[in-house]
Here is the input.
Amino acid sequence: MDSQDPEASIRSNTKTAGNAQSSAALHPVENANYWNDRYSSPGHVPVLTPLPIFTSRVATLRPGNAVDLACGSGRHARWLAQQGWKVQACDFSSVAIAEARAFGTTEDIRYEVADVRQWSPVGGVDLVLAGYLQLPVAELVALLVEAGEWLTPGGRLIYVGHAREGLTHGRGGGPQDPEILPSLAELATAAADFKVNALAHVVRADGRTVDVLLDCERWA
Ligand SMILES: C[S@@+](CC[C@H](N)C(=O)[O-])C[C@H]1O[C@@H](n2cnc3c(N)ncnc32)[C@H](O)[C@@H]1O
Here is the structure.
């Protein structure tokens, strides 16, 4: 399994989820059971190491209240708590949240099973992280705009995901379905009302996979 992205092998471009949840019009990745199946599969190995692209940026911030959107097994939530942040972490896969909790619970992390599109944190937050949350792009953009509204003035929003441009400039790494791959320009629309610290493509060391980074903050 890819050491950065726990679900790098998403390849499907079918809209048939093939499980119990009603999902005829949904992309498979929008279905919690799709993710539950992945986290339950015999080959699943939780990725423990937080993304350096997050840790290097967050290390310069003063700890406060953070959100980990689509936290998966909780690698970023745990790292944030170790750095002194109070974390609200949400994922709609109950299996992922159970796995995250199995790494240990602390009063500094509150895990919730919830769809990020219908969830909001308690109180204002100083940092929102979202790693490899690949939603249909319009939904991702709407979510990032909303997440920006949760931020206190000067608060940061950092998103890393697979980039649409990987389809043309990568060599087959990551998901291949443009529907769930934001382009740089689309992420720029999400950040239109923020102070943008970084909006960039990041080509992984394997040379096959192109990610996209958005690091922005609420104007103080
Ligand atoms: C590739 S994993 C990344 C997990 C984690 N962010 C990390 O970097 O280790 C994508 C995660 O997004 C979650 N997810 C996808 N769509 C979601 C949604 N609408 N609401 C909540 N979680 C979602 C999945 O359950 C899965 O855990």
